[in-house]
């Protein structure tokens, strides 16, 4: 099991810890490739696709809020929104609470074009989840949340460098 690209002290990990790190890297790489393929089918790049995913899950947000959610810069988000709008997946609309602000909303027709691409993987994920007890799922959920928080923190560090 290679710990290549990890600090040298990772070589001192147990066999199980090394296997977990290997599978996490494998999962990350396959997720990127899967979403790249989905993005191509949608006529988008992977970053735009994942930003659209954030929008579909959160509902209307400002560009600044989307930047915070994704960890991307506001300049990058402006370009993402431009491309998503041009492709017909989002619209810019006036904020109902502050007419000076603009919110970005996903377009229902765009979401309808995406949903069929995820049917199979959603069903497969539910089958996997159903194999675990609530206690095991809570442990997995905690682990994934900590990984997500760590990844966002690492993104913020990279932006500051």
TrEMBL record:
From what organism does this protein derive? Brevibacillus panacihumi W25
Tell me what this protein is called.
MarR family transcriptional regulator
Swiss-Prot/TrEMBL GO biological process terms: response to stress
Mind listing the GO molecular function terms for this protein? Answer: DNA binding; DNA-binding transcription factor activity
Q: Which Pfam families match?
A: MarR
Cross-referenced InterPro entries: ArsR-like_HTH, HTH_MarR-typ, MarR/SlyA-like, WH-like_DNA-bd_sf, WH_DNA-bd_sf
Keywords, comma-separated and alphabetical: DNA-binding
Ranges for domain HTH marR-type: 17-149
């Amino acid at each position: 099991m290679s710990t290549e690209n990890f600090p040298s002290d990772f070589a001192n990990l147990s066999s199980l810890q090394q296997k977990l790190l290997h599978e996490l890297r494998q999962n990350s790489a396959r997720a990127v490739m899967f979403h790249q393929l989905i993005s191509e089918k949608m006529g988008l790049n992977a970053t735009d696709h994942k930003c659209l995913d954030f929008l579909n899950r959160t509902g209307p947000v400002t560009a600044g809020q989307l930047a915070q959610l994704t960890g991307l810069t506001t300049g990058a988000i402006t370009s993402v929104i431009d491309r998503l709008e041009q492709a017909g997946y989002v619209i810019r609309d006036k904020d109902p609470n502050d007419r000076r602000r603009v919110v970005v909303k996903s377009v229902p027709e765009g979401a309808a074009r995406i949903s069929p691409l995820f049917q199979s993987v959603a069903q497969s994920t539910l089958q996997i989840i159903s194999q675990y007890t609530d206690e095991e799922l809570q442990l997995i959920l905690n682990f994934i949340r900590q990984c997500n928080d760590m990844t966002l923190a690492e993104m913020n560090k990279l932006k500051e460098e």
